[in-house]
Write a structure and sequence with these properties.
By secondary structure, the chain is an all-alpha fold. The protein has four helices and no strands. Helix 2 runs antiparallel to helix 3. The termini are far apart.
């Protein structure tokens, strides 16, 4: 006894259509994922570059060289950046003034010290 494989032409066409659409959907999903990953990579790289004080300072120097900002403006912004990076200790301010924490007293300052 032999068994013959009987296939209906409409079923074969339907299977090809399903396979075609599955391939199209997988391709679209893969392409969309790649595009989204590239955009995220580019956006986050730009935001990190903008937050880097060194690159910002370079941008300000370039603006000063081009004459877009004055030397006084450049120095004012640079001093503010130095204050921010150093935790608020800027030119003319001690650590105690900037942080509100007093330095420990020495023997000469300690009223209860035995001399």
């Amino acid at each position: 006894m032999t068994t013959a494989h009987i296939s209906h032409p409409l079923l074969a066409a339907a299977n090809l259509d399903v396979l075609l659409w599955v391939a199209i959907l997988l391709g679209a999903t893969l392409s969309g994922s790649i595009v989204i990953l590239q955009l995220r990579k580019r956006l986050f790289a730009e935001s990190r570059r903008e937050q880097d004080p060194g690159s910002l300072l370079e941008q300000l120097r370039a603006m000063e060289r081009k004459g877009e900002i004055s030397t006084e403006e450049f120095n004012r912004v640079r001093n503010k950046m130095v204050e921010k990076v150093s935790g608020g200790i800027g030119p003319g301010r001690s650590g105690a003034e900037a942080t509100g924490v007093k330095a420990p007293m020495t023997d000469k300052q300690d009223p209860g010290a035995v001399q």
